[in-house]
Specification:
219 residues; mainly alpha; two-stranded antiparallel ribbon; 4 strands; 37% helix; 6% strand
């Protein structure tokens, strides 16, 4: 058939369907509930399909491909490490034993020395480690010359040492004071020990008074 008749026929069919729909009886309350539930379920399905279609369209972007579902990233378990460095205590100094040494009354070698009670030229030569022959010579003396307390001697500066052993008795040790002893005569008994060193280690001060029976430490 031609197009005009086909359009007229289609229009008549549509009118008939509309009249039939208008004359349909109202549903009962039970039927209304069923219809409502069906309609609601159908509407929910349509909405879900619509949302899914919309999200799919948005996800396609410009490539037209549906991206894969995102997976939950796996978190690697790490053990926390401490970067805080504890301060270290500095090592304590090791205590060292110290020895008390007697100071020298005159730094270096004196130019002159005045004899004290109980001293003699050879004692002075041993104490200052000088050549006794040179000591006598520069002072115009011989081995038989007379000496006395208060006599001033010139001390050789040539550097020639005392020949032989300067020490006459072993020390450190102790010494018991005898009658007539002086701190100077006791120093001469030991040879290379100065009277100032004996006084220092025994806590003595000038005029160094000694009494018989007193025990002295000899450095």
């Amino acid at each position: 058939m031609n197009t005009k008749r086909f359009l007229e026929f289609s229009f008549i069919i549509l009118v008939i369907i509309g009249l039939v729909s208008c004359t349909r009886s109202l549903p009962t309350p039970e039927e209304a509930d069923v219809v409502t539930e069906d309609t609601t379920a159908t509407s929910e399905v349509i909405v879900e399909i619509y949302l899914f279609a919309t999200q799919t369209a948005l996800a396609r972007g410009t490539t037209g491909e549906v991206p894969p579902l995102a997976t939950t990233p796996a978190f690697a378990e790490t053990t926390p490490t401490s970067t805080l460095a504890l301060p270290t205590s500095p090592p304590l100094p090791t205590p060292t034993a110290t020895m008390i040494t007697a100071p020298s009354p005159t730094p270096g070698l004196p130019a002159t020395y005045t004899l004290q009670k109980g001293e003699f030229p050879y004692c002075i030569a041993r104490r200052f480690n000088v050549d006794p022959a040179e000591l006598l010579r520069i002072n115009g003396m011989t081995s038989g010359s007379i000496y006395y307390a208060g006599m001033t001697l010139k001390i050789p500066q040539s550097g020639r040492p005392f020949p032989g052993n300067r020490s006459l008795r072993p020390h450190p040790t102790t010494y018991t004071v005898q009658a007539g002893d002086t701190i100077y005569s006791i120093a001469c008994l030991f040879g290379d020990v100065s009277p100032e060193a004996i006084a220092y280690v025994n806590g003595l001060t000038p005029p160094y008074r000694l009494t018989p029976g007193m025990v002295l430490n000899i450095p």
